[in-house]
């Protein structure tokens, strides 16, 4: 892939890192989270309504520098998210953001004290009903001038007491098994009492939001169960993850924490401290709107879109599913490194499948992984499940797609069909 990529009128010269195929470029600018009546737009709006008074930021282009996406936030140089198999690069310097956190520092620079960022984000991944290379996230941040520590601590204590009282009146059961301590510390540069109130403010604010979103799904008289656990993010400390009890398991909803002071300094607001969180909209919307397949969000079929109305959470009524068509593909992996061929990675394989067949592939599953005892050669077999959400596929059409996939993976990945 050596053609330069042009996005939002800007050309990014290609180099050895360029790995963003046209099928992904074509998704840029769709902005499902801004499309009236779309479930993602309703979810965004509910969250925005909860965080009243927060300044909204909607960065138009998903292109950020690698520095913004990773380094500025303190990601280690060898963090796996940086690899070409996991992220979409335009070139060595520019990439498609993998999370809305990539805009935190520039948001701090605007001088406001509370923000919400909603945007599309991009990650290379497997193909199944809950993974799609483009999805949407929201980031929230709030911070305060910490010049007068005592006064601010009192102010936050009072606000937190009020929030706690409001929550106490809601049927929500919050279990906090996070453990602020040596493994998940307060920052040394922070006054411990103040940092504790900030973390508390973060927790109350998010518990309130979660209750607004999920409160109604527990109509059977059970309180909504929410759990706080420890986490690690390079730009927050302490850091937490929040989970909601749904369908008999804990569903991870978001990551958050007290922002590392250095990150605020980078944004020119070293005299302020506060919290940040980030969440994925699709995962939550799939639960709230009962949407079984992440591809449906991208459907232009009126049978999907006409079911939803801005501001209303309603369960998706599935229309008839078209029959699936399975095609297996068995091949040997290259035995030794070949010039111009990268080491095998499933995400690269899925990228080709997506580039050829787009949303006509429902999932790609590894069904056999065999290493020949004598030769040591490794063979894989993948089952590709073709199914359109909007129409019936015929066998010739699917065979043509499958042939195209085979042709490309043989050429680009150095594999040998069995
Ligand atoms: N960006 C993180 C992700 O994509 C989510 C996140 C975690 C955002 C912690 C934050 C935060 O702002 O403080 O997984």
Structure summary:
The chain is α+β, with helices and mostly antiparallel strands and 418 residues long. It has helices at residues 22-25, 39-50, 66-69, 104-109, 149-168, 192-214, 261-266, 281-288, 302-305, 346-357, 395-413; strands at 5-7, 10-12, 55-57, 63-65, 94-96, 114-122, 134-145, 172-176, 224-233, 236-246, 249-259, 272-280, 325-332, 361-371, 378-386, 416-417. Helix content is 28%, strand content 27%.
Structure description:
It catalyses: tRNA(Phe) + L-phenylalanine + ATP = L-phenylalanyl-tRNA(Phe) + AMP + diphosphate + H(+). It comes from Trichosporon asahii var. asahii (strain CBS 8904). Keywords: Aminoacyl-tRNA synthetase, ATP-binding, Ligase, Mitochondrion, Nucleotide-binding, Protein biosynthesis, Transit peptide. Its EC number is 6.1.1.20. The protein has two domains: 5-306, BirA Bifunctional Protein, domain 2 (2-Layer Sandwich), CATH 3.30.930.10; 325-417, Alpha-Beta Plaits (2-Layer Sandwich), CATH 3.30.70. The protein is 28% helix and 27% strand. The protein has eleven helices and 16 strands. It has helices spanning 22-25, 39-50, 66-69, 104-109, 149-168, 192-214, 261-266, 281-288, 302-305, 346-357, 395-413; strands at 5-7, 10-12, 55-57, 63-65, 94-96, 114-122, 134-145, 172-176, 224-233, 236-246, 249-259, 272-280, 325-332, 361-371, 378-386, 416-417. An eight-stranded mixed sheet has the order 3-6-7-12-11-10-9-8. The chain is globular, with a radius of gyration of 23 Å.
């Amino acid at each position: 892939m050596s053609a330069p990529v042009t996005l939002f009128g800007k050309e990014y010269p290609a180099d050895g890192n360029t790995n963003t195929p046209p099928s992904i470029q074509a998704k840029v600018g769709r902005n499902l989270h801004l499309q009236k009546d779309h479930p993602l737009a309703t979810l965004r709006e509910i969250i925005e309504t909860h965080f009243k008074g927060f300044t909204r930021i909607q960065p138009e282009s998903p292109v950020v520098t690698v520095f913004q996406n990773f380094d500025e936030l303190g990601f280690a140089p060898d963090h796996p998210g940086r690899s070409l198999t996991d992220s979409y690069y335009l070139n060595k310097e520019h990439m498609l953001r993998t999370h809305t956190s990539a805009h935190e520092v520039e948001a701090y620079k605007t001088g406001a004290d509370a923000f919400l960022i909603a945007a599309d984000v991009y990650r290379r991944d497997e193909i199944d009903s809950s993974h799609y290379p483009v999805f949407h996230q929201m980031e929230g941040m709030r911070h305060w001038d910490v010049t007068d520590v005592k006064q601010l601590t009192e102010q936050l204590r009072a606000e937190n007491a009020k929030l706690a009282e409001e929550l106490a009146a809601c049927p929500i059961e919050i279990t906090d098994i996070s453990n602020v301590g040596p493994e998940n510390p307060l920052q040394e540069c922070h006054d411990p009492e103040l940092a504790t109130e900030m973390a508390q403010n973060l927790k109350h604010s998010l518990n309130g939001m979660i209750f607004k979103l999920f409160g109604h799904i527990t109509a059977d008289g059970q309180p909504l169960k929410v759990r706080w656990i420890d986490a690690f993010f390079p730009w927050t400390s302490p850091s937490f993850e929040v989970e909601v009890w749904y369908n008999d398991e804990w569903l991870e909803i978001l990551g958050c924490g007290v922002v590392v002071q250095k990150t605020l300094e980078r944004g020119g607001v070293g005299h302020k401290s506060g919290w940040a969180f980030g969440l994925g909209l699709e995962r939550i919307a799939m639960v709230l709107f009962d949407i079984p397949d992440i591809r449906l969000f991208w459907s232009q079929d009126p049978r999907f879109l006409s079911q939803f109305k801005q501001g209303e959470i309603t369960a998706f009524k599935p229309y008839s599913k078209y029959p699936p068509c399975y095609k297996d593909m068995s091949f040997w992996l290259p035995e030794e490194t070949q010039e111009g061929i990268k080491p095998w990675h499933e995400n690269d394989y899925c990228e080709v499948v997506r580039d050829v067949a787009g949303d006509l592939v429902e999932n790609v599953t590894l069904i056999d992984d065999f290493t020949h005892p004598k030769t040591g050669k490794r063979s894989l077999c993948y089952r590709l499940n073709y199914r359109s959400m909007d129409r019936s596929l015929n066998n010739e059409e699917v065979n043509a797609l499958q042939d195209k996939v085979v042709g490309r993976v043989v050429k680009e990945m150095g594999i040998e069909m069995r």
